[in-house]
Amino acid sequence: MKCESVIRNVIETECEDYFLGTVDLSQVDNAMVEKYGSLIAEYPRAISIGITLPYLIPDELSMAKKQPYDVTNCQLKSITSSLSSLLEENGYRALSMPKAREMDDGLDISFHEVVANLADLGKIEKNLLVAPEVGSRVNWGTVLTNAPI
User: Fold this and answer.
1) For residue 140, which of 33, 119, 85 has the smallest C-alpha distance?
2) Of 55, 47, 94, 99, the residue nearest 76 (C-alpha)
3) Is residue 57 very low, low, confident or very high in pLDDT (cuts 50, 70, 90)?
4) N or C, fewer C-beta in 10 Å, the chain?
5) Nearest Cα to 76, choosing from 141, 129, 136, 12?
């Protein structure tokens, strides 16, 4: 990836424990990607970012079930917005994909997880993306672009 160090610098302003991958969606045969055909035509490449959720002991987990997701969602929003702005400043189109379950169209796996899987960041098992070393404890975000990454 030509701009990997720049992307990593943006991500590392928000977090230390993350996954990063890219994929050319125009070259992929996948049913979910095909649903977004016109979007993929305009933004054929994707940057997938995963932030590892903190491990909590059972007492902490019961008190703060949603809190780790809220924190990582804020981090992902900041990262994907910054990356989109950076790409646009360099003359490329970029779209920070929103973090919303409505994008799933009733499927059990999110667009972000499909993109991360296509970027070889994990395997889909039982409708979850399972990443190496941390399993499914990752929150995913996606930036679509036409940049040559």
Assistant:
1) 119
2) 99
3) very low
4) N
5) 141
